[in-house]
Write a structure and sequence with these properties.
With 944 residues, the protein is an alpha+beta fold. Helix content is 30%, strand content 22%.
C-alpha cells in the first residue's frame, strides 16, 4: 500500500515537473459564447481553440440566452486543448520514465533491466551454458516487456558488443555485428549468457534490497531498480532520446570511477576539480584520443560538454621515398566502413590530393586501415586533412541526464558519484536488515533446539505420550516455554541431530549467529561501518574488473589549425580597382623579355582595372589597409583561388568594409613581433611609424591604422626594422631620401609627421620604399616607361623637403605610377589597367641617371596604363622549373581550346617581341641635369 502511494505521488510530481518545464500552463480562459440566430451558423475562428469534444455525434443547440447546455447523463464535455495537453504529458511521461532515460542509481533503462533480471531468473549466468537469444527474447517479452521483439534483441546485441559498451554485460556467441555497421545474425542463430560483471548488478536482489512492482499483466513482479554494486551509469554510459530531452552519457574507466568514489568517501566535501585528478575523462571502448580537457571539464562541472575525439594514426616509411598512414583506433560510434568510403570519395573528388592506395586490413586482433601516399606528399598535411574532412575526428556531446527520484535531472560528476554512493548505502541498510531478520529467526529456532537438547529425555517422553503432533506441540510450548515456531522445529528435527557431534554444531551455529547479530546491529547504527563496507566492495570490484585506460587524453595544443590543412606555397595575389581579389600559383605566369605583350591575367569588367599585386606565402597574414586608414587582416589561404582569366571574388565578401571604403595597400606578414614596424605614407606627404605588435589583435570590423586628415588617403605601407633609410617619390617625378630614425614611432591612432613637401595641389606621393645600397630604385611611369637608378644618385636630406628629380615626366612617359627597390637577380611582374600582365627579369631594365626618361618596359595599347607592380626576390633558380611546367601547361591548354585563338588580338605569344624593340632601345637617351632643391623645414603633425 505504501509503495502504491509513493508511486502515485511520484507520478503526480513528474506530471507537474513536465508540465511546468516543457508545457507551461496558460491562465485559464472561459470561452466566450456569442448569441447566434441559427444553430447552424459557423463557429467563429477565435473560438475554434476552445472547441469541445463530446461522446455524442449531433451538435447540441445552444439556448437563446447564450447559456451553455448542462451536461447530460453519460456525456462528458472536455476542452480539446486541455485534453491534448493532458494526453501529451502522459505520453511524454511514459517515454521519459519507461523507455528512454536511465535510472541514476543502476544506470539502466527498463528494457536492459528486464533483460538481466529475466536471464537471472532463467539461470543463464556466466558459469552456465549459452542459451539461444530467441529464448531470452521470448522470456523478456512474455514476462516483462510487452513491446516488439526487435527492440529487445537490439538491446541484447548492444549489451554484447565490445565496441559499444566499455564493459559488456552479456557474453555472446555468434555474429553480433561489427564496427563496420554489419547487423547481427537473427536471434535464432546467436547464443547468450550473462557476463560475469553483470552479476554484480544483481547481487543481493533476493534480500529485499530493491522494490518490486507488478509486471504489465499483474501475473509476476519485476524490480523497479537493480541493486547495482557496479557503478554502471558512469562506466558504460547511456544514450537515449525522450520527448523534449535526451541523454548522452560517456563511458569511463572502472578504476578511475572507483577511485573517484573512494575519494568522495574519504572527503565528502571534495569538488569536481579535485575529483578530476582521479577521474581523468571518458574512456571509450574503441580507444582513440581525446583532444584537450575543456569539454570534459564542462561536462563534469555542468552536466553538459563537447568532447573532441580523434583517431589514432601513425606515419610509417615505405620504400622509394613513399609513406603510409596506419589508422589503428577510431573515435567512439564511428562506422569504419563508412569512414573508408568517405576517404575514397574525397580522394576521387580531389578534395584530398596525394592518396595512392586505401585498404582495410582489420581483423580479430584490431583495426588497421592503411592509407598509402603518393611520392613527395607531405603525410602530416594529408593526416590533418583527414581529421578535418572525415570522421577520423568527431565530437561527443555529453548530456548527463538521468532519472533521479523519477524525474529527469542533469548531473555533474560529483552528483553522479554521490547518488551512486547514497544508493549503495541504502542497499547495504536494507541488506543488513534482511540478514539481521533472518539471523534472528534462525537464532530463535536454534535456541529452541538447544532447550530441547538440554532436556532431551523429557522431550522424547512428552512426544511419545502425545496422541498426535498438535498435542505434542502444545505440550512442548506449555512445559518448556517454547513458542509455536520453536516447537514445530523440534518436532521436525531428525534423530541424527541427537548425536553429540550434531549437538555441538547446533551450539556453535547459535554462538556464531549471536555474534553475527551483534555485528549487524552495529552496522545499522553506524554510518562509518556502512561506508567501510562500500569501500571494501569497491576495492574488490577494482581488483576483479579493473583494466588500463584505452582512450588517451592529449593536450589541446595538438588541435588541427586551419593552416595545417593548407599546402605552403608562394602565390600571386591581385586586387582590382573594382574590389575583386584572387590568388594564383606563382607558376601561372611565365617569364618574358622586356617589351613583350604579356598574357591575359584576368578577364576584367568594363571600366575595372588591376590596382595592386604582390607575392606571398599561403600561410602569411595579409594586412589590408584602406583609403580611410583602417586595417583588416586575413590569412592568404582564406583568399579564394581563381583561374588565370577569372576576376576573383569581391573583397567586400571577405572583409567587413564600411561604405565608400576601398583597400589600397596590402602587405604580407608572418608574425606580429616587437622588433618590426609598419611605415605608412599618405598622398599628402605624411609619414608614420608604428610597432608591428600594435596590430596583433584585429577585429572583424577593422581597427584604426592611421588617423587621416580630410581629403588625405593612405598610399603605401612598408614592414621595417626601424633603422633603414626611406625614399618617398611623388607623382611629378620628385624623390626625397631621409633616415627612418627621423620618424619617431607612434601609437596606432596617431596622425604621423610630414615626410615630403609636394609641388602644388595636383601633386601627391606615389610610393615610399626602403633604401638598399645593393639594389636600385625602379621608377615606372603610367605609359609603360621606366628605369633603374642607383641609390648613390639620391642625396640624403632631412624629412619634409621637396626632394630631387628621379625621372622626367613628360608627354611620352606620363606621370610616375609605381616605384620599387629591386635587385639585379629579381624578377618583376607588371599589370596594366586592362588586365595585361608581364613578367621580366629586373636586369633587363637599364640603369640610368636620375634626370632621364627611361626605356619601354611594357608595350601598352592606346589608353592603357600601368596599374601595378610586384617583385619576386632572387627567384631565378626556383622559377626556371616552374617556367617549364607552366609553358607545358599553357601549350596543352592552347591545343585543347579552340577559344584560345580568339584571344590572339589581346594575348600575344609569350616570347614574341615587337619589331621596333631595338629602335626603342636605341632611342633611349640619357641626359643628366642637376636641380637645386630647397629643403623645407620639417613640420610635425600633432598626434591625436
Amino acid at each position: 500500500m505504501a509503495n502504491e502511494q509513493d508511486e502515485n505521488q511520484s507520478e503526480s510530481e513528474m506530471k507537474k515537473f513536465y508540465q511546468t518545464t516543457l508545457i507551461p500552463e496558460e491562465p485559464d480562459k472561459e470561452p466566450e459564447v456569442e448569441e447566434q440566430e441559427n444553430a447552424s451558423d459557423p463557429i467563429p475562428e477565435e473560438s475554434a481553440g476552445n472547441a469541445e469534444i463530446t461522446q455524442s455525434d449531433p451538435v447540441p443547440e445552444e439556448p437563446e440566452n447564450g447559456e451553455p447546455e448542462p451536461e447530460r447523463e453519460g456525456v462528458t464535455s472536455i476542452l480539446i486543448d486541455d485534453e491534448m495537453k493532458r494526453s501529451y504529458i502522459n505520453y511524454a511521461m511514459s517515454v521519459i520514465v519507461g523507455r528512454a532515460l536511465p535510472d541514476a542509481r543502476d544506470g539502466l533503462k527498463p528494457v536492459h533491466r528486464r533483460i538481466l533480471f529475466a536471464m537471472k531468473e532463467a539461470g543463464i549466468t556466466h558459469d552456465k551454458p549459452y542459451k539461444k537469444s530467441a529464448r531470452v527474447v521470448g522470456d523478456v517479452l512474455g514476462k516483462y516487456h510487452p513491446h516488439g521483439d526487435s527492440a529487445v534483441y537490439d538491446s541484447i546485441v548492444r549489451m554484447v558488443q565490445e565496441f559499444s559498451l566499455r564493459y559488456p554485460l552479456i557474453d555472446g556467441q555468434g555474429n553480433f555485428g561489427s564496427i563496420d555497421g554489419d547487423s547481427a545474425a537473427a536471434m535464432r542463430y546467436t547464443e547468450v549468457r550473462m557476463d560475469r560483471i553483470a552479476e554484480e548488478m544483481l547481487a543481493d536482489i533476493d534480500k529485499e534490497t530493491v522494490p518490486f512492482r507488478p509486471n504489465y499483466d499483474g501475473s509476476l513482479e519485476e524490480p523497479e531498480v537493480l541493486p547495482a554494486k557496479l557503478p554502471n551509469l558512469l562506466i558504460n554510459g547511456s544514450t537515449g532520446i525522450a520527448v523534449g530531452m535526451a541523454t548522452n552519457m560517456a563511458p569511463h574507466n572502472i578504476r578511475e570511477v572507483i577511485d573517484g568514489a573512494l575519494l568522495l568517501i574519504d572527503n565528502p566535501t571534495a569538488e569536481v576539480p579535485e575529483l578530476m585528478n582521479v577521474v581523468k575523462g571518458p574512456d571509450f571502448p574503441t580507444g582513440a584520443h581525446i583532444i584537450g580537457t575543456a569539454g570534459t571539464k564542462s561536462a563534469y562541472l555542468t552536466g553538459r560538454g563537447s568532447v573532441k575525439m580523434r583517431a589514432v594514426a601513425d606515419i610509417q616509411e615505405l620504400k622509394k621515398d613513399r609513406q603510409q598512414i596506419i589508422v589503428t583506433e577510431l573515435p567512439y560510434q564511428v562506422n569504419k566502413a563508412r569512414m573508408i568510403e568517405n576517404i575514397a570519395q574525397l580522394a576521387r573528388e580531389k578534395t584530398i590530393v596525394g592518396i595512392s592506395d586505401l585498404r582495410d586490413e582489420s581483423d580479430r586482433d584490431g583495426i588497421r586501415v592503411v592509407i598509402e601516399l603518393s611520392r613527395g606528399t607531405n603525410p602530416k598535411v594529408i593526416l590533418n586533412q583527414l581529421y578535418k574532412h572525415t570522421q577520423m575526428e568527431t565530437t561527443f556531446g555529453i548530456i548527463n541526464l538521468a532519472l533521479v527520484d523519477g524525474k529527469p535531472k542533469e548531473l555533474n560528476l560529483k552528483e553522479l558519484l554521490e547518488i551512486y554512493l547514497e544508493y549503495r548505502i541504502e542497499i547495504i541498510q536494507k541488506r543488513t536488515l534482511y540478514d539481521l531478520r533472518k539471523s534472528e529467526e534462525r537464532a530463535h529456532i536454534l535456541e529452541g533446539l538447544r532447550i530441547a537438547l538440554d532436556n532431551i529425555d523429557a522431550v522424547v517422553a512428552l512426544i511419545r505420550s502425545s496422541a498426535n503432533a498438535d498435542e505434542a506441540k502444545q505440550g512442548l510450548m506449555e512445559n518448556f516455554a517454547l513458542d509455536e515456531t520453536q516447537s514445530k522445529a523440534i518436532l521436525d528435527m531428525r534423530l541424527q541431530r541427537l548425536t553429540g557431534l550434531e549437538t555441538r554444531k547446533v551450539l556453535e551455529e547459535l554462538e556464531g549467529l549471536i555474534k553475527q547479530i551483534g555485528e549487524l546491529r552495529k552496522i545499522l547504527e553506524s554510518e562509518e561501518l556502512k561506508f567501510e563496507i562500500v569501500r571494501n566492495e569497491l576495492l574488490g570490484l577494482r581488483e576483479k574488473y579493473g583494466d588500463a585506460r584505452r582512450t588517451k587524453i592529449v593536450p589541446a595544443a595538438a588541435e588541427v589549425r586551419e593552416e595545417d590543412l593548407i599546402h605552403q606555397e608562394e602565390v600571386v595575389v591581385t586586387i582590382t580597382n573594382g574590389g575583386y581579389i584572387k590568388r594564383l600559383p606563382l607558376s601561372t605566369y611565365t617569364m618574358q623579355r622586356r617589351g613583350g605583350r604579356g598574357i591575359i591575367g584576368m578577364e576584367m569588367k568594363e571600366e575595372d582595372f588591376v590596382e595592386n599585386l604582390f607575392i606571398a606565402s599561403t600561410h602569411d597574414y595579409i594586412l589590408f589597409f584602406t583609403n580611410r586608414g583602417r586595417l583588416y587582416w586575413q590569412k592568404v589561404y582564406e583568399i579564394p583561388e581563381g583561374s588565370r582569366q577569372s576576376r576573383g571574388k569581391a573583397i567586400v565578401n571577405l572583409l567587413e568594409l564600411q561604405e565608400g571604403e576601398m583597400v589600397n595597400a596590402m602587405i604580407p606578414v608572418k608574425e606580429f613581433d616587437e622588433n618590426h614596424y609598419l611605415l605608412m605614407a599618405t598622398r599628402a606627404g605624411t609619414i608614420k611609424k608604428t610597432p608591428l605588435s600594435e596590430f596583433r589583435n584585429p577585429r572583424k570590423a577593422g581597427i584604426i591604422a592611421v588617423t587621416l586628415d580630410e581629403g588625405d588617403e593612405l598610399v603605401k605601407v612598408l614592414l621595417t626594422d626601424g633603422k633603414k633609410e626611406v625614399v618617398m617619390v611623388s607623382r611629378k617625378g620628385k624623390a626625397i631620401r631621409f633616415p627612418e630614425e627621423d620618424v619617431r614611432h607612434m601609437g596606432r591612432t596617431a596622425r604621423g609627421v610630414r615626410g615630403m613637401s609636394l609641388e602644388g595641389p595636383d601633386d601627391e606621393v606615389v610610393s615610399v620604399d626602403l633604401v638598399d645600397e645593393t639594389a636600385t630604385l625602379l621608377t615606372v611611369t603610367e605609359n609603360g616607361f621606366g628605369k633603374r637608378t642607383e641609390y648613390s644618385q639620391y642625396p640624403a636630406h632631412r624629412r619634409g623637403g621637396k626632394g630631387v628629380i628621379t625621372i622626367v615626366t613628360n608627354e611620352r612617359n606620363g606621370p610616375v605610377s609605381r616605384v620599387r627597390s629591386v635587385a639585379e637577380d629579381d624578377e618583376l611582374i607588371f599589370t596594366s589597367a586592362e588586365g595585361i600582365i608581364i613578367r621580366i627579369p629586373a636586369r633587363e631594365i637599364s640603369i640610368q641617371g636620375r634626370n632621364t626618361q627611361g626605356v619601354r618596359i611594357i608595350n601598352l595599347k592606346s589608353g592603357d596604363k600601368v596599374a601595378g607592380m610586384a617583385r619576386i626576390q632572387n627567384g631565378k633558380a626556383e622559377e626556371e622549373l616552374k617556367l617549364k611546367a607552366s609553358i607545358a601547361l599553357q601549350a596543352a591548354e592552347t591545343a585543347s581550346s579552340g577559344d584560345e585563338t580568339d584571344l590572339q588580338e589581346d594575348e600575344a605569344e609569350d616570347v614574341e617581341e615587337p619589331d621596333e624593340f631595338e629602335d626603342l632601345e636605341a632611342a633611349d637617351e640619357e641626359a643628366e641635369e642637376t636641380e637645386d632643391v630647397d629643403e623645407a623645414e620639417t613640420e610635425d603633425v600633432e598626434e591625436d
